[in-house]
Amino acid sequence: MSELTEIRNHEEIDSIKTKRHKGCLNHPFYDWITLLSTLFVPLVVGILTIVLPLQQQNLSNRQNENSQTIAVHNRLKDMEILHDQQKQTILNTYEQDLCNLIFKYSSINNYNDTNNDGIDDDNDDERVSLVIRTKTLYALRQLDPVRKILLIQLLIDSGIKNRINLSHLDLSSLTFPPGSFYNQLNFVNIIAKNLSFKRIHLYRSNFSYSILDGSSFQQSNCSYADFSYASLQRTDWTNTDVTQVVFNYTNLLGAKITSQQLATVQSLKGATLPNGTIVAI
To answer: Which key words tag this protein in UniProt (predicted)?
Structure first.
């Protein structure tokens, strides 16, 4: 019996050893690993063969898009520089033409002073003024806000400003440099909505018949100025000196101006006050 038992034990041990050396489906694990390795490598190569060209194509597309974006940006920048140069050329040309016209005007006046037969002064003055007005309006229509201010300053400095008619001129949304002196400025019958005249000296200036809706005169000196028949709706007069200002028939509807300020003006005849009340004539 002992020998039989020993034989059975040996058979069980051999059976266990055999099972250990066999894998799934009676194949060793080594064979399966070898098979999977053989299949995995071509699979990876195939996937990479498909994926890598797609990635390269996407990268190429992104590079092309970036190149196009940069090209468009550079083009817009070049156009902006070109437009800026054109505006500066217009201003420079206007300045040169103005100097020539002023010199010609002075020469005509000097000639008339030394010749009794002279040319009609009024006709010459009118012709020169008309030419300057035409050139001024043409230049202002094409200039940017900053250069418009420079052109107006040029007119003021040249002394020709009050000799020409600037009526119907559109100066809307301009911002004049704070602290500037524009005393006796003559802006009659102009369009200048949302104009900024903050901390500006406008002593004895004339804005009659002008449209100045939404403009700001904060902390400015507007004493003795004339705003007769002007539209000043929603204008801002905070801390503004309006001593002896003429507001005859002016529309101040919605304007920021105090009753204390209005008490210092010269006249409000027929004016529309901020609250909509019309002053009796």
So the answer is: Membrane, Transmembrane, Transmembrane helix
| Cα 157 from Cα 43, distance rounded (Å) | 84
Whether 104 and 193 map to the same domain: the answer is no
Q: Kindly give the residue spans of alpha helices, DSSP state H, lying in the chain.
A: 2-20, 29-114, 121-142, 145-158, 259-262
Same domain assignment for residues 58 and 145: yes
| Six token digits for residue 280 | 């009796």
Residue 245 to residue 237: CA distance in whole angstroms: 12
- Same structural domain, 129 and 224: no
* Strand, coil or helix: 67: helix
Tokens standing for residue 202: 């406008």
Amino acid occupying residue 3 = E
End-to-end Cα distance, the chain: 145
pLDDT of residue 111: 47
Encoded tokens for 203 = 């002593």
Question: In sequence order, what DSSP letters do the residues of 138-154 get, joined into one string?
Answer: HHHHHS-HHHHHHHHHH
Which pair of tokens denotes residue 217?
């005169």
Q: Are residues 263 and 207 part of one domain?
A: yes
Residues 170 and 257 in one domain: yes
The residue among 146, 165, 184 that closes a domain is: 165
Residues 28 and 101 in one domain: yes
User: What is the chain's length?
Assistant: 281
The CATH number assigned to the domain holding 277 equals: 2.160.20.80
Identify the pLDDT of residue 90: 92
Structural domain boundaries enclosing 36: 1-165
How many distinct structural domains can be found in the chain? 2
- Which residues in 223-242 are b (16+ Cβ under 10 Å) and which e? bbbbbbbbbbbbbbbeebbb
